[in-house]
């Protein structure tokens, strides 16, 4: 097939269809794509004008060339019906695409910082009972190990200045973060413990132990609101909510004994080597997506063929 030939109406229709099927859930990419129609292809132009009039795409003319831009309206049922698309085929959806390089979001407690170890020390001091990580049966450890009347004195200790800054980095975490920083932009996303010095101490701790600057630290319990390509967290809830909000993001559940045997539906990682392998794969996919995008932009009328070849290779 000559990829540089003049487009026909069928090329345009097929390109939009393939594009729609492949990238319907990728609003960033959709917002950037522009289909340029050759002046000789009146049929195709009329078809696109019709879509533009319906508000599904936008058109503009510059230097005598009319450009049509597909917008997020591609998700509109009306356009789907007009193009005769019954639904989206997830099997050919690319993993994700992000224009600024890969963004890796990392939880802090129990992924980078040994919060549980320090909390077990506090519990032992306050109650006289020594517990261990292996005994944890649920994500929220305090509910399992503390009587209601013991919560207040234990939390008072954890809220004291110095607790957060004295946490030890978990084995392998510093090296792991360093390797991730070579693959993308790393942000710490952490829910602050309700205590006055926590945010200040955690920010300094992340910079001192991991070289993560203040500008790359996000304090929130609503982690699903933070956009990124990967979220590494030990809490299944966070991963599930985040993946639901970011369908092209990849959630990695850091393995802890307290979540063992639960949530087989989440991608679980046990070591930093596993994390790096997953992230490297994601970087590879993204790079391939970018090449694919460039190829489609060079030959917009062969988009159907390019995407179909690519989905066959996946
Ligand atoms: Mg955590």
Give an overview in words:
There is one protein chain. The protein is α/β, with parallel strands linked by helices and 314 residues long. It folds into 2 domains: 9-85, Winged helix-like DNA-binding domain superfamily/Winged helix DNA-binding domain (Arc Repressor Mutant, subunit A, Orthogonal Bundle); 102-284, Rossmann fold. The protein is 45% helix and 13% strand. The protein has 12 helices and 9 strands. It has helices at 9-23, 27-32, 42-53, 77-83, 115-127, 141-145, 148-158, 173-183, 198-210, 236-245, 272-298, 303-313; strands at 34-36, 57-62, 65-70, 103-106, 185-190, 217-219, 230-233, 250-254, 267-269. The strands form 2 sheets. The protein has a 6-stranded parallel β-sheet, sandwiched between helices. Strands 1-3-2 form a 3-stranded antiparallel β-sheet. The longest helix has 27 residues, at 272-298. The two termini are 22 Å apart. The structure holds magnesium ion. Magnesium ion (MG) binds next to loops. The site of magnesium ion has 7 residues, from loops.
């Amino acid at each position: 097939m000559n990829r540089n030939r003049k487009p026909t109406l069928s090329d345009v229709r097929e390109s939009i269809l393939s594009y729609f099927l492949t990238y319907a859930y990728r609003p960033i990419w959709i917002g950037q794509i522009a289909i340029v129609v050759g002046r000789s292809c009146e049929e195709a132009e009329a078809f696109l004008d019709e879509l533009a009039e319906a508000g599904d795409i936008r058109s503009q003319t510059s230097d005598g060339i009319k450009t049509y831009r597909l917008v997020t309206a591609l998700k509109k049922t009306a356009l789907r019906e007009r193009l005769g698309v019954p639904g989206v085929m997830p099997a050919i959806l690319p993993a994700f695409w992000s224009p600024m390089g890969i963004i890796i979001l990392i939880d802090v407690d129990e992924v980078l910082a040994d919060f549980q170890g320090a909390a077990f020390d506090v519990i032992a001091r306050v109650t006289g009972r020594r517990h261990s990580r292996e005994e944890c049966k649920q994500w929220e450890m305090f509910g399992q190990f503390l009587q209601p009347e013991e919560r207040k004195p234990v939390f008072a200790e954890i809220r004291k200045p110095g607790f957060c800054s004295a946490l030890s980095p978990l084995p392998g975490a510093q090296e792991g973060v360093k390797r991730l920083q070579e693959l993308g932009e790393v942000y710490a996303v952490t829910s602050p413990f309700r205590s006055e010095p926590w945010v200040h101490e955690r920010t300094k701790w992340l910079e001192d132990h991991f070289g993560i600057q203040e500008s790359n630290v996000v304090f929130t319990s609503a982690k699903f609101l933070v956009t990124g390509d990967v979220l590494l967290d030990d809490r299944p809830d966070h991963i599930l909510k985040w993946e639901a909000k970011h369908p092209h993001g990849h959630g990695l559940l850091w393995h802890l004994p307290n979540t063992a045997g639960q949530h087989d539906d989440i991608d679980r990682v046990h070591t930093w080597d596993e994390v790096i392998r997953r992230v490297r794969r994601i970087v590879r996919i993204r790079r391939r997506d970018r090449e694919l995008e460039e190829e489609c932009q060079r030959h917009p009328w062969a988009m159907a063929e390019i995407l179909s070849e690519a989905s066959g290779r996946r």
